[in-house]
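Notebook entry, structure prediction.
Reason for the run: the old model in the group folder had no record of what sequence produced it. Starting over properly, with the input documented here first.
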Amino acid sequence: MAGESSFDIVSKLDRQEVDNAVNQAAKEVANRFDFRNVDAGIKWSGQAIEIQANSAERANAILDVLKDKLVKRKVSLKVLDVGEPRPSGKLYKLTVGLKEGISQENAKKISKIIRDEGPKGVKTQIQGDELRVSSKKKDDLQQVIALLKGKDLDVALQFVNYR
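New structure, fully documented this time:
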């Protein structure tokens, strides 16, 4: 009797790594000479990251520092939902949201890719904000993982619960 093998496709965020990256970016902004005396800063604000500076260009420069720190901590930049710098009094504020979970639309898109381009006999099942992929052959599951890693999707995917 051959059982079914499966794995889950999820889009999770390591909040501790993001927090560490924000703290490192805040330290760098505090110490860099081009950000001195310009009210530049970066901090958590609820579920988002708030960046402020005295010009839109400086706010975007702080965002670049944050992106650099995230990449060094192996956090995908696809989790960032970046807005436009908006004036707020004398300062420009930039809100960076964090995306977590696979939306229904993206789950359907991933399912379609697996159905169209993946090996035959592989089944997908949408379960809330994650996707379960199952097959009788483990090799087929590995082909699906390789297929999805090769695609440029707009969500950061992780493959978990491989059994």
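Summary: The longest strand covers residues 91-98.
The old model has been moved to the deprecated folder.
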